Each structure stands twice: as structure tokens, then as C-alpha cells.
Amino acid sequence: MLFYRRLAVVTAAFVVLIAAVILAVWALSRAGGTEASLGNAIDESGEPKALWEEEIQDIQGISAEAFGRHPAWTEDFLTVNEYSRPGDALTEVNSIFVHYTANRGTSAAQNRSYFEQLKDTHERSASAHFIIGYEGEIIQCIPLDEIAYAVQTRNEDSISIECCYLSEDGSFTQETYDALIELLAWLTETYDLTRDDILRHYDCGGKKCPVYYVEHEDAWELLKRDVK
């Protein structure tokens, strides 16, 4: 009798186990299938990965780790529109262009507002990814995975930085200069570029921009050398 009792207990436990497996398979199928569910726990090489590991997403086309090292700036994106932020993808970055605002004494915020208002005024097409104020503040106007309207023939593969200024000769304040150097250093490192990939607007089309660094070649070369 004892043998039959033990057999009944084992049989009951086995039935419960089978029922649990059936319920688990049913639940997985309701969630989209066992293959889809288990696929999240296997990496591309077929090796299992920790289920608690979260996928780290890119930010503006840049790895989250690299993006987290960027200089301090204020993100204030322009409204998507055909005159200053078309929303077209920037899929590669081969150069960084430095500009000056050609509007002495205006702030970064004022120049950002000018770009924003183009959607209403339709005056022209113009923008930049960044504007650096004469106190060193940086405003990001365009995401780094979108083009800006800054260098007609190079918008599709470059990032542009506008710099505010106070001096009549177009030279930058020390605060603007320091912020520009820091931003250029981060961008060149992030996109695996060299100092030779840092260009003036003048270098593409001959526009006298940024004027001080066009008229003073030695100052431009020094600026590039300061990018570490």
C-alpha cells in the first residue's frame, strides 16, 4: 500500500509539472510566440545575454556614451520647416564649419530667434547646428543627425557653428573662443575628424566668414592648433 501511495504522489506532481509547462507555452504564444520572446534573450552571435541588460540607444546619431561627454549647451531646436530646419537626415559628417553671425552685438538667443522666424518671413534659408554667444553660452538649434542650411554645397555632410561677436573686426570674445575650442574638440573626437577637417565658411565658396579669421590667417591656424 505504501508503494502505491508514493506512486500516486509522484504521478500527481508530474501532472502538475506538465500542466505548468503547458500553461507557460500558452502564455508565451499569447505574447507573440516563443521564438519572438526568447529572441530578446539572445544576442546576434547566438549567445545568451542578461535579461536585465537594457539596449543603449543612440542620441542624435551618436552613441549615448559619446553624447554624454558633450560640452554644456542649451538644446532649443528650431521648429521643422522648409526655411531653417528641413528635417532631412545628416548621414555622415566630414567637416565642421565655423561661421560668424555678421550681426555684431546680437546674442545667441537673438540669432536663434532669427532662424526660427524664417519659417514665417520666408526671407531666406539659413540655420546652424550651434550658436555660441559672446558670453560663451551655446545653443543647439538643429539635432546632429539632421542637416542645417549653412554651407550650400556641404550641408549634406557637415556640421556648422555660428559665433556671435562684439568687436568691429569680427574677432571673438575669449568666452566665445574658449567655448568654440571645447565644442570643436568634442566634435572632432566624436566624428573621428582631424584639425584639417575644421573649415571656415570661406573655405567653401569664398564667403568672407568668419571675417576676422579670413583676414588673419595666422589667427585661424592658431585656433585650429588650440583644438586638442
Automatic annotation (TrEMBL):
Keyword terms of this UniProt record? Cell wall biogenesis/degradation, Hydrolase
Q: Which residues form a coiled coil?
A: none
| Listed EC numbers | 3.5.1.28
Q: Which reaction does it catalyse?
A: Hydrolyzes the link between N-acetylmuramoyl residues and L-amino acid residues in certain cell-wall glycopeptides
Please provide the Gene Ontology terms (biological process) for this protein. cell wall organization; peptidoglycan catabolic process; peptidoglycan turnover
Which InterPro entries does UniProt cross-reference here? Amidase/PGRP_sf, Amidase_domain, NAMLAA_amidase_2
Question: What are the N-acetylmuramoyl-L-alanine amidase domain coordinates in residue numbering?
Answer: 80-225
Q: Which domain of life is it from?
A: Bacteria
Molecular-function GO terms, alphabetical = N-acetylmuramoyl-L-alanine amidase activity
* Matches recorded under Pfam families: Amidase_2
Entry-linked PANTHER family: N-ACETYLMURAMOYL-L-ALANINE AMIDASE AMID (PTHR30417)
For this entry, the protein name equals: N-acetylmuramoyl-L-alanine amidase
Q: What organism does the record attribute this protein to?
A: Candidatus Acetatifactor stercoripullorum
